[in-house]
Structure formats: structure tokens, C-alpha cells
Design brief:
- The protein is α+β, with helices and mostly antiparallel strands and 353 residues long.
- The chain has one domain: Beta-lactamase.
- The chain is built from nine helices and 15 strands.
- The strands form five sheets. A seven-stranded antiparallel beta sheet has the order 3-2-1-15-14-13-12, sandwiched between helices. Strands 4-9 form a two-stranded antiparallel ribbon. A two-stranded antiparallel sheet has the order 5-6.
- β2 and β3 (29-30) form a beta hairpin.
- The mean pLDDT is 94.
């Protein structure tokens, strides 16, 4: 890999923040703690948290049908049969509810045909209408299938239920009060001077080649670019640490409550059926002893509630395949060995006191 930024934190402080390698190899620009990254699908749990804030305020419910907020979803159809010659569509056995969007069990595809060549072209109201015109791949709740369209639809629901644009809601309600200074869907020109260059292996996998993010329109500071709830956010390690600390603390940070404790716990526990291979909460990947999310270019953010630890691993590497998981697992194992027992003991002592 060209370089990485790694961060380990507990509920109240950063324990380790390291930057290694190059943010831009050609320019000899080193990685630094304030290097900016496209965090891709790590955007999803942030969207989930924003939605749960509306749930706390009584403006939405996890079990609400999508059509309650977006009438264009009234006539959804499911693909029953597909061949080269024709497609047979039927009515879904039940309505798509907001929980389905959050857990990737709605049946919605990854994206709609209109989201080409990049996923940041359409305002959320237009994107949602394009999803409503696209048949479901299966009946709601019957399977797990990862879907940016589902999370993006949730972003549009947030606009309707919350009464303000999705990106503005997150900026006012999460980014500014949490001190997530660099979190943005459209970074400024000044921020882009700190953006990590994206790299991909050459065909022989013998060296790295600089590349663009193929899912986003360039230049990245173009004001016509649209927010993507399923994967459009840029942020630094410190930005993500503040968000993660708020979640790990049961919805509070800096003396301010962002989420009820019940909502913070609810969104980070498994909601998908045990018969499904993938464990997913409300916008969060859930595994044994941890919850968090990964991003398309290799970045990961995971929280370990028993140890009271947060681990953030930021890289900008396309096509990393298994190497990225190996690198993160090494980082995770080392962090748990270094701080896990200490933070667990401190938590037990605090509870006893």
C-alpha cells in the first residue's frame, strides 16, 4: 500500500494516531494525521445514526413503510422471472419498510440505471424516484443483498421527515456539534490538498498506479456534485473518532446527547435473520464482539464495546482484495493486545466503583 492512517481510541481519548507512507507518491507528500480520505461506505453508519436521531424525536419509526414518506414507492414490483426475452413482475408480498433499507433486506438493487457514469449525479429526490421505477430483486425481508439504493432512499426519507436537506441535516446535527471539522460530501479546494491519492495495482500486481475514484464526478469540489448517503462522505481519522466515541458512549459526546442510549444500542445490534450469512444492524455491519463498517477503497471503522475500543484504518486503495483484510486484522490484533485488557479492566473498575 502507498500509506495509511491508523487510530485507536477509547470512549474519551485517542490512544494512538499514526500516519505512515505516502498520501501522494509522485509529489512525495507524506501521510499525516489530518490527511483526508474518501470513506465510501463508512458513510452508511453515519446516515443510520442521523436517521435514529429522527426516530428519537418521533418523526419516523423503523417499521414505517417507505411509501408513508415517498408516495412514488406505492407501485413497486418484484422480479419473479427473468430471461433474455422477457421479465415477469409481481407485487411484493409486503411493503418495503425503513428497517429493510437500513439492513439491506429491501430487495432493492445496488443502484438504478440512471446512476451512471457516477453515483453523485442525482439529487436525492430524483434518485429516489429512479429507485421506485426499478424492480425489486426479491420480496422484502427474504434475503440480504447489499444496496446503496436502499441507504440513499433512507437519506431521502430523512429529508422528508426532518424537513431539511440530508447533507445540511448531518452538518447541523452531527458534524458541527461533534467537531467533525473535515466531514463533507463536497470537499473544498483547500481540503483537497490534503486528500490521499487513490491507488490501484497494475495488471501484474507488481506496483501501484494512481487512479481516480470511479464512482465520483471530478473535480471533487464541483458544487453540482450531490450527497450520497450510501457512500459519498470525505473525512479524517479524527472526524470518525469523534463520531465513534459518541456511539460507544451510548449517544453522548462533550456533555451533549445526540442519540438516546436505546437508539445507540438498537442500531448497533444485529437485525438480519440468523439464517443470513451477513450480520447487519441499522446501517452497521455487526459481528461477534464488534460493529462498524468498511469502505470500498479499503478503509475500516470498527468499535469493540466489551474492550471499550475504537479502531480506524484509513487507506485509499482500489482492488486490494484480501491484502486489506490481512493488514487490518494485524492492526486490530495488535491494538487489542496493547489496549484491550487495560480498557476492559478500567471499565470493570468504573462499574464496581
Amino acid at each position: 500500500m502507498a500509506g495509511a492512517v491508523t487510530l485507536v481510541a477509547d470512549r474519551s481519548r485517542i490512544l494512538s494516531l499514526d500516519a505512515v507512507g505516502w498520501a501522494d507518491r509522485a509529489k512525495r507528500r507524506r501521510m499525516t494525521p489530518d490527511t483526508l480520505f474518501w470513506i465510501a461506505s463508512i458513510t452508511k453508519p453515519i446516515t443510520g445514526a442521523g436517521f435514529m436521531m429522527l426516530v428519537d424525536e418521533g418523526k419516523a419509526r423503523v417499521g414505517d413503510p417507505v411509501v408513508k414518506y415517498l408516495p412514488e414507492f406505492a407501485d413497486l414490483r418484484v422480479v419473479a422471472k427473468r430471461s433474455r426475452a422477457r421479465m415477469v413482475l409481481v407485487k411484493p408480498r409486503r411493503k418495503v419498510v425503513l428497517r429493510d433499507l437500513l439492513t439491506h433486506t429491501s430487495g432493492m438493487p445496488m443502484h438504478s440505471p440512471l446512476e451512471n457514469p457516477t453515483m453523485d449525479r442525482l439529487p436525492l429526490d430524483v434518485a429516489a424516484r429512479s429507485y421506485a421505477m426499478t424492480p425489486l430483486e426479491f420480496h422484502p425481508g427474504r434475503r440480504y443483498a447489499y444496496s446503496n439504493a436502499g441507504i440513499n432512499t433512507l437519506g431521502r426519507v430523512m429529508e422528508v421527515a426532518g424537513g431539511r436537506p440530508y447533507a445540511e441535516f448531518l452538518k447541523r446535527r452531527l458534524f458541527h456539534p461533534l467537531g467533525m471539522k473535515d466531514a463533507s460530501f463536497v470537499p473544498t479546494r483547500a481540503q483537497l490538498t490534503r486528500l490521499a491519492t487513490s491507488y490501484t495495482p497494475n495488471p501484474a500486481r507488481t506496483r501501484l498506479v494512481a487512479t481516480r475514484i470511479p464512482y465520483l464526478k471530478y473535480p471533487l469540489d464541483d458544487p453540482s456534485r450531490q450527497p450520497v448517503p450510501g457512500g459519498g462522505l470525505f473525512a479524517t481519522a479524527r472526524d470518525l473518532a469523534r463520531f465513534a466515541q459518541m456511539v460507544l458512549r451510548g449517544g453522548t459526546f462533550g456533555g451533549k446527547r445526540f442519540l438516546s442510549r436505546a437508539s445507540a444500542l438498537r442500531m448497533t445490534r444485529r437485525h438480519t435473520s440468523r439464517s443470513f450469512e451477513n450480520g447487519y444492524g441499522l446501517g452497521w455491519h455487526v459481528e461477534k464482539g464488534a460493529f462498524g463498517h468498511a469502505g470500498a477503497f479499503g478503509s475500516k471503522m470498527f468499535l469493540y464495546p466489551e474492550q471499550g475500543l475504537i479502531m480506524i484504518f484509513l487507506v485509499q486503495h482500489d482492488g486490494w482484495l484480501g491484502e486489506g483484510d490481512t493488514a487490518f486484522d494485524t492492526f486490530r490484533r495488535t491494538a487489542l493486545e496493547t489496549w484491550g485488557a487495560r480498557t476492559s479492566a478500567a471499565r470493570k473498575h468504573s462499574k464496581t466503583s
